[in-house]
Fold this protein.
Amino acid sequence: MKLKSIFKRTVLVAGMVAAALVQAQDIKLGFNGDLSASPSAQSGKAGVIGIQAAIDDINAAGGVLGRKLTLVIRDDQSQPPKSIQNMSDLIDNEKVAAVFGPTNSGNALAWRHIPNQKKVVSMGMIGSGTDITKPMSPGVDNYMFRVSMVDREQVSGLVAYAKKSGATKIGLMGETTGYGQGGLKDLEEIAKMNGLTPLAVEKFAVSDTDMTSQLNKMKAAGVETVLVWAQGTPTGQLLRSMEKLNYFPTFLTSWAADNITFFDAAGKGLAGKPIFMRTMVSPSTPAQQKLYDRTAAKLAAPSAFPFVIHGYDATLLIAAAIRQAGGTDGAKMREALENLSAPVQGVMKTYDKPFNKISHEGLTAADLAFVKWSDDKLIQHSDATVKSLTKADFKR
């Protein structure tokens, strides 16, 4: 009996030690996105800066459930196979509690089945493809969340702007990546909802530097307003091609035009022609200014700052989910995010029940602004059309 009692006490002590060790372990979070290859890589770098800033602040305040957060970073180099490999590595080998990213929408669409199968939350904060946060099939649990722009919300705003301005002779263009083709699909669908029929639809590769052939078709069709979905560099090259033809229709495009890669490709003289949307133009609150002052020196350009905010706020939401779930169980974290019991004070805004079972988007059309370049700075764009827009104009 004595030996049995000693054995029980030993097992009990071992269990307590193991529990204490688990409690003391850091909580790993992962980032999987492009940091080096595509025109959007600078957005990925800015997102990581925001995530790390939030982690530093959370850890300085005592961590989450008494545990520190750490970030494991993987560069997917804009390659879907590499991104898939990274996702499995972060979940299976690094045992992360959640994954941020990716930079490119096509990569998220390539691997979104993985977090859903393994029940690990993915919190997007850059890629804006509409289908990223859709469930794998109707009614199933969905582990894909996002705090960033959403293509369909942007498209809704841009098409509403085109219609409200009286445009009828429209053309649609998109790059041949998953990002470009997803946005082109949204453009076609929402244009139809608004009773607009494109006179021409054209595509181009992300590496193309001469799109005069596609533009000549637009011009021949009589297109006066063109809506474009592409990353920064090819959008800039498209403007260069317009210059060759001296053909400048009204140019509405995706928020990738806020990227310094767009400005560099287009040049100062052409960069001011497109109108696009983004979550913010410049810091407008004390919290935003404080984060900007802290991170600006690390950014490739000031225009990348919204990604810092998205990364920061996405991290706060994950931390809130871990607290509410009482740990890092994926299913409990998903349930917590879908029904957060308390508002999360972010830098972009206060997130008061931002997600539910149906919608996993933390930012919506109400958070967006029309923007364009002026000289070498981004400014909020306001004209008679913007001022006349109402919520009823935005169809999605």
About this structure: The first helix runs from residue 2 to 24. The chain has 15 helices and 14 strands. The CA atoms of residues 29 and 97 lie 6 Å apart. Residues 152-278+369-393 form a domain with the Rossmann fold fold (CATH 3.40.50.2300).
